[in-house]
């Protein structure tokens, strides 16, 4: 086939492919990077008027970069892969505006480490995705791809919506409360938050440094594993196989009463079906003191946010949203001793969690209160995700349930700190048993869980 | 007194005053901020041709800012205080060059959080101080104020030299290995590294995120406490009094054999004199596994450095020094599993250290191998400081000894994580007993430990 034939023959659905299939297809010469980017760009042109997932997006530049990659030697394991980058992460060749008028048009001098690492491995940065103001609570204009009257969640709103709508196979998010897993759940895709400090944060505007974690939003776990390996400087490898059915800790948490019926169903139905599939379901109660973590996370979040935004607070206060101003004011009012007490509780619970994992390989927990709420102003409650952000554990959400309005509801899987590879393998085992349930309204359905 | 009289009357030695005395004097109208800055600027003009502590320094701008402050209402507890800022920390109105040609002339869009916080409290940023390349090992041109043929230590070279030479009363440093305490010890001043993540790192170029800690270099502990309070968003308060003589853990560490005679003397003499002063000296052996921390810190440092510098590595490799290139190459060769093992050992030892502190209020440890080595190319061995950086504990160095060449040798005091205020109070108690020993070659002597 000539290059042109290849491009033409496979253009229609390339944007729906998984990342692993894209890099495999490009490496094999089945299609070009340009064709993939063209498919993504076309999808964005068709849909983004409604979804508004992208803040900085230059189709001509992305296509030009794709053509360069098509002519170049293989750069690495992500050669030709389009990636979306949450707009709180620096890019040397695109503005980084952080969802704030303060940084309108801001051009950083360097790529964030995660961006530089995937580019060096051959990825194309397709563009910057919409974020809540400074990865906080004030919403981006993004809509949920499954229902444009509902929030996609935040703060990685654009990344989740873009991946769910097959505008891009994978995207970076950041999580300080629940900003990767919540939008992934609301949009019906996979969200992965690694162990704290696993992915290097150079070039990411901090929200709260003791919590901030770069994560990935994707449509398959293989894709997560692929990009994760690159970010760790490791050689990509297939997910480990799980040789025996795992022990799954059913962990409702102290917030269970806040779960809406669809989340109760999602978690309990998953437990039932996994039990049927041979897993050992262990009712797992977290120690009592863990109930203090919700408040502790808010203290840490508000205090660190207030300190970290000192420049913007003193120079550009009038261009900070009212909601963020209130958080900063709250943070400025927190006594240092109360902040330290919150940090100490978190450190204590991280150690205490080791004992919980002695009885379970993975925890099955609620991910969200329920379906994406109506309206675009609020991006939803982070509490179910934020518990684990503070505990620094790796977490995954899988879109295994559908709520009363036909919208996706994710479950949350939690592993011990530093055991991310095992958590991903166990998540795949669980997903194989549960199957995907998501309303592929705009995209084609696949038999189980996307293209494998 | 007219304003002019005040300026003239007190100009000569204002650069030698402690920060606490400067803010008190300005608040009382004893002298002006302009007079203080003028004294500092004059000192720099006299000395910096040899010492080379400053990279970006604009006397006219500093004086102009001082005059603004003299006319303004009191901004906060640091009103009129000149501060030096290590040039890996962003300033919106001065270049931030990080000791690297890659960032020559780079102008960040915002102040780092620590800079914004002290400015909001009324401080004047006097200028940027010389740093090793990216806060690493490749030396700045700075010389030791006590002997220009010797290193001032690194990587906060300029901050330590400037404070020691009374060019500025206090300065920011950062420590990833030993980059605050070592130069402080070599230059005969106080170095303070707080508990990890105590001072917000927004706007600091990361060296290795799991280790990087902003610290302070000063000439009195009261000054450290003053600026620390502002950085924590707290109200400045005098150091706590220590009501009874403390239990001091004499902690030689597994590296004791590497200590030169002057460090052995500094530590053992301090222990003897503190014993005489009524302290209970407890021989404290760290658990065996702590000897693995030196290697673990190198693994973490090299691995995180390699990931964090991905952009510079892939875009500007030829402008990275050979020594840093080697570190990055080493980091790129570290298996992720080995990195995780190093992180796990550190986490384990942090918890194990709690038991050590059950028997001692503060640890007395070697700070450096010995006096500042000859030559400007190498900034000295970080191992004695780096142990505690990895353990995330607060540390203080005090200049209590003089080596065979008449150069300062510091001791190191270590407290439990989050108990920084207590460590500072205990450090003052210890310093009161030991007295200062430093070669005030260029600066006046004071009776005990600087102006109180």
Written account of the structure:
2 copies of one chain form a homodimer. Chain A has 452 residues and is of the alpha/beta class. Chain A has a single domain (3-284, 352-434), classed as Amidase signature (AS) enzymes, CATH 3.90.1300.10. Chain A has helices spanning 3-10, 19-28, 33-51, 59-71, 113-120, 157-164, 181-187, 221-231, 261-276, 293-308, 310-315, 322-332, 336-357, 383-391, 420-434; strands at residues 54-56, 82-86, 124-129, 170-175, 190-193, 213-218, 247-250, 280-283, 362-366, 395-402, 408-414. In chain A, helix 3 (33-51) packs antiparallel against helix 4, helix 6 (157-164) runs parallel beside helix 7 and helix 10 crosses helix 13. Chain A is globular and about 60 Å long. The interface between A and B is large, with 48 and 48 residues.
């Amino acid at each position: 086939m000539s290059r042109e034939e290849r491009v033409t023959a496979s253009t229609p659905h390339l944007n729906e492919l998984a990342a692993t299939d894209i890099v495999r297809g490009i490496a094999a010469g089945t299609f070009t990077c340009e064709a993939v980017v063209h498919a993504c760009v076309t999808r964005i042109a068709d849909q983004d008027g409604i979804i508004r997932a992208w803040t900085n997006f230059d189709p001509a530049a992305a296509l030009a970069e794709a053509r360069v990659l098509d002519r170049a030697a293989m750069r690495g394991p992500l050669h030709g892969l389009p990636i979306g980058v949450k707009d709180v992460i620096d890019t040397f060749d695109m503005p980084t505006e952080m969802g704030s008028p303060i940084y309108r048009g801001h051009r950083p001098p360097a790529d964030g480490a995660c961006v530089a690492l995937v580019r060096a491995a051959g990825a194309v940065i397709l563009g910057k995705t919409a974020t809540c103001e400074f990865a906080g609570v004030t919403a981006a204009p993004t809509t949920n791809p499954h229902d444009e009257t509902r929030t996609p969640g935040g703060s990685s709103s654009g990344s989740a919506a873009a991946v769910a709508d097959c505008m891009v196979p994978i995207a970076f998010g950041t999580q300080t409360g629940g900003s990767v897993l919540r939008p992934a759940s609301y949009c019906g895709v996979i969200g992965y938050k690694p162990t704290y400090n696993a992915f290097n944060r150079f070039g990411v505007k901090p929200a709260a440094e003791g919590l901030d974690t770069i994560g990935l939003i994707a449509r398959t776990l293989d894709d997560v594993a692929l990009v994760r390996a690159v970010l760790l400087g490791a050689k990509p490898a297939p997910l480990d196989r799980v040789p025996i059915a795992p022990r799954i800790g059913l962990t409702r948490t102290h917030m269970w009463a806040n779960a809406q019926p669809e989340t109760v169903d999602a978690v309990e139905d998953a437990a039932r079906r996994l039990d049927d599939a041979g897993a050992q379901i262990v009712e797992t109660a977290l120690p009592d003191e863990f109930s203090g973590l919700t408040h502790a996370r808010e203290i840490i979040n508000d205090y660190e946010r207030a300190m970290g935004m000192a420049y913007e607070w003193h120079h550009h206060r009038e261009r900070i949203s009212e909601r963020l101003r209130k958080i900063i004011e709250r943070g400025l009012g927190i006594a240092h001793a109360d902040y330290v007490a919150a940090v100490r509780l978190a450190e204590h619970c991280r150690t205490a969690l080791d004992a919980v994992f002695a009885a379970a390989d993975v925890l099955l927990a609620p991910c969200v209160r329920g379906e994406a709420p109506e309206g675009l102003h609020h991006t939803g409650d982070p509490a179910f995700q934020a518990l684990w952000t503070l505990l620094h554990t790796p977490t995954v959400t899988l879109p295994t349930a559908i709520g009363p309005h036909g919208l996706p509801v994710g479950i949350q899987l939690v592993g011990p700190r530093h055991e991310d590879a095992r958590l991903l393998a166990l998540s795949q085992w669980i997903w194989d048993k549960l199957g995907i349930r998501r309303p592929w309204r705009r995209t084609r359905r696949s038999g189980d869980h996307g293209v494998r």
